[in-house]
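Notebook entry, cofactor series.
This is the third protein in the set we're modelling with a bound small molecule. For this one the ligand is ribose-5-phosphate. I'm keeping the input format identical across the series so the outputs can be compared line by line later. Sequence and SMILES below, as received.
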Amino acid sequence: MSDADALKREAAARALEYVRSGMKLGLGTGSTAKHFVDLLAKRVEEGLEVVGVPTSEATRVQAESLGVPLGTLDEHPVLDLCIDGADEVGPDLSLIKGGGGALLREKIVASASRQMIVIADASKKVERLGAFPLPIEVVDFGVAAIRRGIDRAARAAGCEGLLTLRRRADGHVFVTDQGHLILDAAYHSIADPQALAAQLSSVPGVVEHGLFINLASRVILAGAGGVTVIDRA
Ligand SMILES: O=C[C@H](O)[C@H](O)[C@H](O)COP(=O)(O)O
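Returned structure with ligand:
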C-alpha cells in the first residue's frame, strides 16, 4: 500500500468510530471511500447491522461483493450518516467532488443524510478551492451551447477557465452512472464558491456541479502527523 493509500485508510478507519448499529449509511465513491466500505464490511461480518446506500455503481458492486446489506434512497429517503471522500476541502468545509464522476448521486445522498463525514488524506485541504478542476455534469444535448452558458455564468461569479470534456483512459467519452457527460472546469482559484454554485445551477443543461457547500458536517484528515477531525462551525 502506498503512503497516500495508508493515510486514506487511516481516515476511513477513524470514520468507522461514528457508525452505530442500526444506522442507514450513504456510501461514497472513490479510492478513500473504497477503504471505508472495505473496513465497514469487516465490521458487518462481526455483527454490525447497517444498511448502505451506494453513491455509484462501483461502490454498489464493491459493497455487494463484500456482503454489506444495501438499500435504495427510495426505501430510505433519510439517512443517518454519509461517508465520502473529496477532491478538495476548503476552510469552511466546502468541497470539490466528482473526480471519479459520481458527484450527482453523491450530492443527492449527502443531501438526504443527517450528517456527512468527509474522509481524506491531508493533501486535500486547501486555502481556496479551484486548483482541482471543477467537475460539471451536463446532459448529452447541445453541449456547445451548454458550454457557452457555463462560461457566461462562471464569469458572472468571477471565474474563467477551460472546460474539458472528460474522457476515459481508453479515449472514449466518459459517461456517468446517470448517462450524462462531465466538463472539467479549470478555474484554478474560486473566490466565491457559493456564487459560482448558484450561477452554474442556473444554466440549462447543467445537471449538477461538484461544489458541495454546507453539506459536510465533519472532515477527517489523515496526514504524516496523525489524524485531524474538523467540525463545521
Ligand atoms: O466522484 C468521485 C468522488 O467525488 C470522490 O469521492 C472524490 O473524487 C475523491 O476520490 P478519492 O478518494 O479517490 O481521492
